[in-house]
Specification:
mainly alpha, two-stranded antiparallel ribbon, Synaptogyrin, Marvel, signal, transmembrane helix, membrane
Length: 134
């Protein structure tokens, strides 16, 4: 859910333009990489959650212990990796937001703050997912 919120905040109001130009730019210090990173990890995290949810549904029907072990290790490894990536994303978005000039923000400040906040919450949700696998 947090990944969807970050993704939708950045897609919905993460890009803006100045009143004198029709050219869109990322609200985070005009850094396109900040918006792309947040959107990218948000989409991939959402898709991974769907995949691992389906694995959890079919997990009792998997009789091979080796396959079960690899699925659990994959879930643990992915959760650990995504914890790190969300931490990087939170730091990156926060840093870029701190350097954003006030005159560049006409609309979308609340969405930018929401993206930062929910990327922070995502760190703890992925840590709890990794801890549940242990």
């Amino acid at each position: 859910v947090f990944a969807l919120i970050v993704f939708s905040c950045l897609v919905g109001e993460g890009y803006t333009n100045s009143p004198s130009s029709p050219q869109l730019f990322c609200i985070f210090n005009r850094n396109e990489d900040a918006c792309r990173y947040g959107i990218g990890i948000g989409v991939l995290a959402f898709l991974a959650c769907i995949f691992f949810f389906m694995v959890d549904i079919y997990f009792p029907q998997i009789s091979n212990a080796t396959d079960r072990k690899y699925l659990v290790l994959a879930d643990l490894g992915f959760s650990g990796l995504w914890t790190f990536l969300w931490f990087i994303g939170f730091c990156f978005l926060t840093n870029q937001w701190a350097w954003t000039r006030a005159e560049d923000v006409h609309i979308g400040a609340d969405s930018a703050r929401a993206a930062i906040t929910f990327s922070f919450f995502s760190i703890f949700s992925w840590v709890s997912e990794a801890a549940a696998e242990l």
